[in-house]
């Protein structure tokens, strides 16, 4: 059979390449990942490209008009101008100019006015075929809805013959936006770094094409994106430019002679590729503020930190978020159990679309530590039943650290309770775990769990537990609203189990371990305790599990674990109301 | 006598290995014999009833009556949730249904080792039981929770085609497409196409015989391969068309291929990245392709714009 021949040929080919083929497998050649541009909050004092400032001013002026459409001005014939005037005045053409909820104007822009083509023929436009009508096609793009509206206009009869609405469609962009995209690209540090020198605008050019742009998309943001392409020998540098936000998304080299180069480089493909190559396939070291650790993205346990040391003293073997459980109280048994992790080839339901972020912790103008954070998104957040979770580790230079889990909503309803499952394996033998009884520290001599509700007892400093090993000792301070981060308290279940060798009981990547909707202690870790809790009094290494319970709220002014789309400058942005949970760990020696 | 038997055996082998004879089957879909299960008829379910594996409140398979009279009537046999969350569904001429597990959002109810098991729901008793297992080319790991993703039943050859990506990793495509002899009470894998990760699959009866269309899982391409008189794979696979650049996402994978007629098919495309993302509103887009004759390529027929 011919498959046998294919297999033999492949086997020979792979052997020649020095690979180790699996029978019946097709190897996927690795490619060099591109570079993602950082997304930063615009600095109002930072210089803005003149071309961007000019375009922003034109857009703002258009949004203030009674009919908020930015029209084409330059290089139009009288008939094109008339076609545009008639289209803009037509109520059908004005269908999506305002947000139906707030009434705010949405950014709409005429991208082109072209002579009508026979391929545009419909019943409504039959008059354009044989005169006397002289017809034009007017194309408008709506940035908020990422949609096109097309009008067929007869300038002789002075009538709009047809208006069509095309969702998820981006018409060809006008020349001034082509120039703006190239301008953004050649001024971006990532393009300059990749080219080794700042390219000229004229360097952007696709071979055998009249345009400097290559087809691209921003599938996740649903923004208008194009890719100015710069040639260097046989390679081409794709620079994906977001024309909704006027920023560079990222860059990637492709071999122009490679047939696979015909697959466009897009926002999602670039993000997935960069994150996978840099953070899913390997660990990255971090050494700041006295802390050293490794971090990487997992298949289903979010961002995992490991080999955590403070001033070279071992603290944690590893820490991660195993699951996010969300239950909706008004619908019995309704909810989701989400794993978070890598964007491709993973068991994650909510995935990383940006790389991890490292930033200093600044208090009163002074750097007091370092924060490591990772975001995970559903594709259409903040649409209902989509989620945005954040994982954060704050390490302070005085030895404290905090493990945080944050929900940015939005979920399926306003009756949701989030229960993320944090797992922390402590470094070292001689593990001892004790709980504050109100008067003294009571040691746990076997595996167990406890609910630390809002009425639970804590020391004057807020400590409820103490965990010691041969290396160090930490007080554990659950959140009850004292961290000045908007958090309203964790109401957590706390579990302590014996660490097991060879990655058992969660040492390796754990699949989803608990269902969505249990409202009691059964969140997953109990599987490693029941039916017979193991002894803890012999100083075994310990695993600490922490499951906060966070209720969302959509009450205006009181929103919590919530998100809401709002119109800002003619496009949809998100108002986020994050709920922050997670305990602080305070070194015993540093405690007052 | 021995010579006669040998001659007959050689003749039948040659016949089976030959391409399915042109024009010998009704043109278009080879899954034309779908029959309503007898147990459903006996329970009063109408001909508008259908199976669903996508009800968010129900794990497994659900029978739903879509008629106006009994709208909302549902039935689930106790065995229908035994395999966890399910994906593709196919019916044969006897009213039996074939289903396969596909994890949704998480793997809580889907045991990784059983994602390559195909189940059959008996059309008479409604009992669901394991029917066939596609042997995985490689032991699946935590980076790929999927096994069987697509099924298609060929009424002419009583073959069930299954696509599986079990064991595939980011750097090795070890999926396969298998033909299962579905003529008996248990299924048997009788032919396979290896090294291909695919999702949607459909048998198309064309003027030159049968071809199996399949949508690749790693790219947006739809390929096909000829089938012989028995339904086994024959010759080289060929690229038919691609969904790349089409629709709201531009990189959809073909989740399901439906043969509408001898010259038209609809591909249902979804985002697929070997993870468990599951947005609430199913991000699925239907793409229609047509062709004038077997010698012309399939061309995309864009949906008519919404006129205001």
Explain what this protein looks like in three dimensions:
The complex is a heterodimer of chains A (592) and B (308). With 592 residues, chain A is mainly β. Chain A has three domains: 50-166, Nuclear Transport Factor 2, Chain: A; 173-265, Nuclear Transport Factor 2, Chain: A; 282-587, Copper amine oxidase, catalytic domain (Beta-galactosidase, Chain A, domain 5). Helices cover 12% and strands 36% of the residues of chain A. Chain A has six helices and 35 strands. In chain A, strands 12, 13, 14, 15, 16, 23, 26, 29, 30 and 31 form a ten-stranded antiparallel sheet that branches. In chain A, strands 19, 20, 21, 22, 24, 25, 27, 28, 34 and 35 form a ten-stranded antiparallel sheet that branches. In chain A, a hairpin with a 2-residue loop joins strand 19 (357-363) and strand 20. Chain A is elongated. Chain B has 308 residues and is mainly β. Chain B has a single domain (24-301), classed as TolB, C-terminal domain (Neuraminidase, 6 Propeller), CATH 2.120.10. Chain B contains two helices and 22 strands. Chain B has helices at residues 2-17, 38-42, and strands at residues 28-29, 49-52, 62-65, 74-75, 86-91, 97-101, 117-121, 128-133, 148-154, 159-164, 172-173, 176-181, 188-194, 198-206, 209-216, 221-227, 233-242, 253-261, 264-270, 284-290, 299-301, 306-307. Chain B starts with a helix and ends with a strand. At the A-B interface, helix 1, strand 1, strand 7, helix 6 and strand 16 of A face strand 11, strand 17 and strand 22 of B. Strand 1 of chain A pairs antiparallel with strand 11 of chain B.
């Amino acid at each position: 059979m011919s498959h046998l021949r294919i297999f033999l040929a492949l086997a020979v080919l792979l052997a020649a390449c020095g690979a180790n083929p699996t029978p019946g497998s097709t190897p996927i050649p690795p490619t060099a990942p591109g570079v993602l541009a950082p997304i930063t909050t615009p600095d109002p004092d930072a210089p803005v490209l003149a071309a961007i400032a000019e375009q922003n001013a034109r857009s703002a002026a258009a949004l203030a008009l009674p009919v908020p459409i930015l029209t084409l001005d330059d290089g139009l014939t009288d008939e094109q101008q008339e076609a545009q005037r008639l289209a803009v005045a037509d109520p059908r053409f004005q269908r999506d100019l305002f947000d139906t909820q707030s009434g705010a104007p949405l950014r709409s822009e005429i991208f082109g006015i072209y002579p009508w083509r026979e391929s545009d023929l419909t019943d409504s436009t039959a008059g354009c075929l044989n005169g006397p009508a002289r017809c034009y096609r007017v194309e408008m793009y709506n940035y908020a809805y990422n949609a096109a509206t097309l009008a067929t206009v007869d300038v002789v009869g002075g009538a709009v013959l047809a208006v069509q609405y095309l969702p998820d469609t981006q018409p060809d962009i006008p020349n001034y936006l082509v120039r703006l995209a190239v301008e953004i690209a050649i001024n971006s540090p990532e393009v300059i770094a990749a080219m080794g020198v700042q390219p000229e605008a004229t360097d952007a050019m696709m071979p055998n094409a009249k345009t400097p742009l290559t087809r691209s998309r921003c599938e996740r943001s649903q923004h208008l994106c194009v890719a100015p392409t710069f040639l260097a020998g046989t390679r081409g540098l794709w620079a994906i430019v977001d024309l909704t936000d006027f920023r560079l998304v990222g860059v990637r080299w492709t071999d122009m002679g490679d047939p696979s180069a015909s697959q466009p480089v897009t926002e999602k493909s670039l993000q997935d590729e960069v994150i996978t190559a840099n953070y899913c396939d390997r660990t990255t070291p971090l050494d700041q503020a006295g802390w050293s650790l490794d971090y990487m993205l997992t298949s289903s346990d979010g961002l995992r930190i490991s080999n955590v040391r403070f001033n070279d003293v071992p603290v944690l073997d590893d820490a991660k978020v195993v699951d996010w459980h969300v239950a909706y109280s008004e619908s019995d048994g309704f909810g989701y159990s989400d794993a978070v992790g890598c964007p491709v080839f993973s068991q994650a339901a909510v995935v990383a679309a940006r790389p991890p972020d490292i930033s200093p912790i600044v208090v009163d103008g002074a750097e007091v530590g370092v924060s490591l954070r990772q975001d995970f998104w559903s594709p259409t957040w903040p649409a209902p039943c989509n989620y945005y979770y954040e994982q954060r580790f704050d390490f302070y230079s005085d030895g404290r650290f905090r493990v945080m889990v944050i929900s940015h909503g939005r979920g399926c309803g306003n009756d949701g309770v989030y229960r993320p499952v944090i797992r922390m394996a402590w470094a070292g033998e001689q593990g001892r775990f004790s709980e504050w009884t109100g008067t003294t520290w009571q040691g746990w001599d076997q595996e167990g769990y406890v609910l630390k509700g809002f009425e639970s007892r804590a020391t004057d400093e807020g400590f409820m537990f103490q965990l010691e090993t041969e290396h160090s000792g930490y007080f554990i301070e659950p959140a009850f609203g004292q961290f000045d981060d908007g958090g309203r308290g964790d109401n957590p279940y706390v579990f302590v189990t014996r660490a097991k060798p060879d990655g058992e009981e969660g040492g390796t990547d754990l699949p989803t371990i608990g269902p969505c909707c249990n409202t009691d202690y059964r969140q997953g870790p109990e599987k490693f305790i029941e039916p017979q809790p193991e002894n803890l009094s012999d100083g075994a290494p310990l695993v600490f599990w922490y499951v906060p319970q966070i209720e969302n709220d959509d009450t205006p002014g009181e929103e919590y674990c919530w998100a809401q789309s709002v119109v800002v400058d003619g496009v949809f942005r998100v108002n986020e109301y994050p709920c922050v949970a997670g305990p602080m760990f305070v070194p015993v020696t540093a405690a007052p | 006598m021995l010579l006669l038997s040998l001659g007959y055996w050689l003749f039948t082998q040659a016949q089976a290995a030959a391409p399915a004879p042109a024009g010998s089957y009704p043109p278009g879909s080879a899954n034309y014999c779908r029959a309503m299960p007898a147990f459903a008829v006996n329970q009063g379910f109408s001909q508008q009833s259908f199976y669903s594996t996508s009800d968010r409140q129900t794990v497994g398979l659900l029978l739903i009556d879509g008629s106006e009279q009994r709208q909302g009537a549902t039935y689930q046999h106790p065995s229908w949730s035994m395999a966890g969350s399910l994906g593709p569904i196919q019916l044969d001429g006897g009213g039996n249904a074939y289903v396969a597990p596909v994890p949704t959002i998480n793997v809580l109810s889907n045991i990784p080792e059983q994602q390559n098991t195909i189940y059959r729901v008996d059309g008479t008793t409604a009992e669901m039981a394991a029917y066939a297992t596609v042997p995985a080319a490689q032991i699946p790991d935590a980076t790929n929770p999927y096994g069987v993703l697509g099924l298609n039943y060929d009424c002419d050859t009583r073959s069930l085609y299954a696509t599986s990506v079990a064991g595939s990793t980011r750097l090795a495509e070890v999926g396969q497409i298998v033909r299962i002899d579905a003529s008996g009470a248990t299924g048997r894998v009788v032919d396979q196409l290896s090294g291909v990760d695919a999702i949607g699959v459909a048998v198309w009866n064309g003027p030159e015989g049968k071809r199996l269309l399949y949508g690749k899982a790693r790219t947006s391409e739809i390929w096909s391969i000829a089938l012989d008189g028995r339904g086994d794979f024959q010759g080289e696979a060929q690229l038919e068309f691609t969904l790349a650049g089409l629709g709201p996402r531009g990189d959809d994978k073909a989740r399901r291929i439906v043969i509408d007629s001898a010259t038209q098919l609809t591909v249902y495309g979804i985002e697929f990245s070997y993870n468990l993302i599951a947005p609430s509103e199913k991000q699925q887009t239907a793409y229609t392709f047509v062709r004038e004759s077997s010698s012309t390529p399939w061309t995309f027929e864009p949906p008519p714009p919404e006129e205001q």
